[in-house]
Amino acid sequence: MRALKEMSTTTNLTLDEFSQLCIPRLEKVYDFYLRDTPALALKNTMEYTLQNSGKRIRPLLIYATGRIFDAPLENSDLPACAVELIHTYSLIHDDLPCMDNADLRRGKPACHKVYGEGMAVLAGDALHTLAMQIIASYPAPLKSQRRLDMIATLSAACGPFGMAAGQALDLSIMSDKNISLDLLENIHRLKTGALLSACVELGRLSSNDDDELHQQSLKQFGDRIGLAFQIQDDILDMEANTELLGKPQGIDVKNSKCTYPLLYGLNQAKEKVQSLYHDALDAINMFGHQAQLLRELTGCLLQRKR
User: Fold this and answer.
1) From start to end of the chain, where are the E strands?
2) Between these two residues, 221 and 260, which has the higher pLDDT value?
3) Within a domain: residue 7?
4) How far apart are CA 83 and CA 90, in angstroms?
């Protein structure tokens, strides 16, 4: 059997095989930068959460979308690694006492419990800025305009028009029992959905595709899985145990947060998730067999238990 690294095409790979091919590429990229980090304590803190292997859902969304348009893996490497760094920084900051005050992440002590709050803040800051540096400078056959488009897309998704805004609203008004459904869903879209949706666009930007209809269809797909993902997280927070989740169970209740299942019930929340994933899949029907990996990944998201 040929080694995956020797395969010249990803056309017929299963999702597991595709994941085994792509995920090690992330480590190669960020290792390229972290090995020369002058502050050893900062390097260790950054690596601690990066190497505490998560599901790598966001990078896989980028790679799988890129395959629809035959994007070179070398191009997808840049945004895939950048998004994983952004996501990791957000987890480090989420767990801080001033945010969700969580002691566990992926079954291990949260970053600040091991390295202290100050170093955890700095590690998050460094991961955030390194993400942009990677897109701007890591060697790849990617045109300058595409790099700029990627930086603009990612910045919008994680800054004051995306994730940071969602986190701010989460801190300030998510305990309001009278929160409207529209506002709740908007917070979810900003806090979680914006970055997931950006991953799909970043995958497209890894290719030469410039079709506006393609972009619109992928945005519909990304927006729906983004909202579904957060509602699903809230369901798991109520139903799964800490050991399975790898983080404290029931933290939303502990922090008095209003979530979709708390306000509308578990059954309605589960129906909403199913409906959103169904709509997401409909949005990418136009891509036919080329989107098979993206469909399989969507199925895995729907079935996840943590």
Assistant:
1) 104-105, 108-109
2) 221
3) no
4) 11
